[in-house]
């Protein structure tokens, strides 16, 4: 019997997933939580084989919880669920060394199969998302350009960025122009969106 902890903040979705998984003859949901901060304590208490975790959870995000599980309970496997089919989300999940990554709109049979495969030691990644991440390629920005864009994404204006990085405001504006050109962004906001979706910032 594969013991599962399910972390999902939407009550209706969580209830439906539990009902579906408990229909499987070899899977048992032994614990359910609705916030990310309860995942690690729940895993310690119930000792699941697999934690099925929604990436976007209140209080503590799913990836941070998954990384903590990997560091403190290496025998517990992690399978991430997300409604955001963005290559950047997959890159972040792989960087966190999760064992599986599945879109929430996948058929229920795929979820049960993914749980079995992850429990058996395999790494499971949604194939369409993996292709999209592969197609996106490497980040074209330099480390300095990424620093500038991260600060811009946090709401800093060129003067603030210049102060933070010990640059002139003109140099920062030049960096932002170069970034927009490299990313084919219509403007700064568009460039930030492109970089975020690709998982570069």
From TrEMBL:
InterPro entries in the cross-refs: CheY-like_superfamily, Sig_transdc_resp-reg_C-effctor, Sig_transdc_resp-reg_receiver, Tscrpt_reg_LuxR_C, WalR-like
Domain spans labelled Response regulatory: 3-119
Start and end residues of each HTH luxR-type domain: 133-199
Post-translational modification 4-aspartylphosphate, affected residues: 54
Keywords annotated in UniProt: DNA-binding, Phosphoprotein
Pfam families recorded: GerE, Response_reg
Organism superkingdom: Bacteria
Listed name of the protein: LuxR family two component transcriptional regulator
């Amino acid at each position: 019997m594969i013991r599962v902890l399910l972390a999902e903040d939407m009550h209706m979705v969580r209830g439906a997933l539990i009902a579906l998984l408990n229909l499987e003859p070899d899977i048992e949901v032994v614990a359910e939580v609705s916030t990310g901060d309860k995942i690690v304590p729940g895993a310690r208490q119930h000792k699941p084989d697999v934690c099925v975790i929604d990436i976007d959870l209140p209080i503590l995000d799913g990836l941070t919880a998954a990384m903590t599980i990997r560091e403190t309970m290496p025998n517990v496997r992690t399978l991430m669920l997300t409604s955001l089919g963005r290559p950047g989300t997959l890159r972040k999940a792989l960087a966190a060394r999760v064992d599986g990554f599945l879109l929430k709109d996948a058929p229920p049979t795929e979820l049960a199969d993914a749980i079995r495969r992850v429990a058996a030691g395999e790494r499971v990644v949604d194939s369409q998302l993996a292709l999209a991440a592969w197609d996106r390629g490497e980040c074209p920005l330099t480390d300095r350009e990424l620093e500038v864009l991260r600060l811009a994404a946090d709401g800093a204006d060129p003067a603030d960025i210049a102060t933070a990085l010990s640059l002139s405001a003109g140099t920062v504006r030049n960096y932002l122009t170069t970034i927009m050109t490299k990313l084919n962004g219509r403007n700064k906001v568009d460039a930030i969106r492109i970089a975020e979706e690709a998982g570069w910032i």
